[in-house]
Amino acid sequence: MAWFLYLLECSDGSVYTGIATDVQARFDKHVSGEGARYTRSRKPVQVLVSFELADRSSASRAEYWVKRLPPAEKRALGAGLRTLESVLPAPVPDPEPDPEPEPVAADEPPST
Hints:
112 residues, GIY-YIG endonuclease, 5 helices, GIY-YIG_endonuc, GIY-YIG_endonuc_sf, UPF0213_domain
């Protein structure tokens, strides 16, 4: 199931970041006052942008990093001046496994 990271512009000019499986339904919840506490007092005006991610884990990770951006950077992300990939840390490649040690023959003394 796809999850989305979304950014909302609020009536006080702030930018709210959240995740959902249905952005429009979640936006409607925020507008009705049943969404996050943050948006109850700062009514959402519009969805700035949404990004589709593979699963909830990916969406949560992306939300973690986007929430740490200053408002200007969130707006740049919403305007398409930055990509979501530019905000997220670079993936760490899996380390290569250690090579298997060479077997020692039973009649050879161990090397020192």
